[in-house]
């Protein structure tokens, strides 16, 4: 059995990559304008494509995590993100770049939730808050790397090699999940699809969800607006 530190390190690294991909668009915006001829509207579309695909994937990702576990889900979704990054590296028009960003958004949609799921399965209850903090800490490092260091690298080699390198790194991370992260034993028989759907209905029938939803929508709208300015 792999150590808890190794497991947490892997999922922190997955969230680290997710944050880099989420943040790097703002840094390469001038390059996309000069190289591809994108305007402000198209740049906003690229950002929105990632966020919309990310949000739309949350429910399917949640169902998959319960059914297949964080190891297999994270490994599979990182392949999707690597495909999106590869496509972005060779894209020459707004449509291709938008599709690529959507694939990246979907591919990293479970990066944080997979980590939290892994924490519940590998860390004792009293220390799960610490485990979650370690996973989220990977994202904070990602925010640092996605600023000045990435800007320097873009200036040195260009944005296309950056995305090609990130694609290789993401694919390598996917392989590491399969090699390093253990397959946790199921606590019981696999849930049937109708039971999973019944659980979703219960969530959406909870009035608390609908009290919180407007706040989530406003926050998401604010984030999109800030990223597209």
Task: Identify the notable features of this structure and list them briefly.
single chain; 229 residues; mainly alpha
Describe the structure.
There is one protein chain. This protein has eleven helices and no strands. The protein has helices at 4-35, 40-56, 58-68, 70-90, 94-107, 111-122, 128-145, 148-157, 159-180, 193-205, 207-228. 33% of the residues are buried. With 229 residues, it is mainly alpha-helical.
Concise structural overview:
With 229 residues, the protein is an all-alpha fold. 84% of the residues lie in helices and 0% in strands.
Task: List the SSEs and their pairings.
Elements: H1 4-35, H2 40-56, H3 58-68, H4 70-90, H5 94-107, H6 111-122, H7 128-145, H8 148-157, H9 159-180, H10 193-205, H11 207-228
Helix pairs in contact: 1-2, 1-6, 1-7, 1-9, 2-5, 2-11, 3-4, 4-5, 4-6, 4-9, 6-7, 8-9
């Amino acid at each position: 059995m792999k150590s808890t530190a190794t497991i947490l390190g892997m999922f922190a690294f997955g969230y680290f990559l997710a944050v880099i991909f989420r943040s790097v668009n703002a840094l390469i915006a001038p390059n996309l304008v000069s190289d591809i001829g994108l305007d402000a509207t198209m740049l906003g579309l690229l950002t929105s494509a990632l966020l919309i695909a990310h949000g739309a994937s949350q429910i399917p990702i949640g169902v998959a995590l319960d059914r297949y576990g964080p190891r297999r889900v994270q490994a599979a979704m990182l392949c999707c993100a690597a495909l999106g990054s590869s496509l972005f590296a060779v894209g020459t028009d707004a449509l291709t770049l938008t599709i690529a960003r959507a694939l990246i958004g979907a591919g990293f949609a479970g990066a944080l939730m997979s980590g939290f799921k892994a924490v519940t399965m590998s860390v004792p209850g009293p220390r799960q808050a610490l485990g979650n903090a370690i996973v989220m800490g990977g994202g904070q490092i990602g925010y640092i790397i996605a600023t000045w260091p990435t800007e320097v690298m873009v200036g040195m080699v260009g944005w296309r090699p950056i995305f090609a390198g990130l694609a290789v790194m993401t694919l390598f991370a996917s392989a590491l999940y399969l090699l390093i992260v253990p397959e946790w034993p199921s606590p019981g028989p696999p849930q049937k699809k109708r039971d999973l759907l019944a659980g979703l209905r219960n969530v959406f029938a909870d009035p608390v969800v609908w009290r919180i939803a407007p706040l989530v929508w406003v926050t998401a709208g604010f984030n999109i607006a800030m990223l597209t300015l």
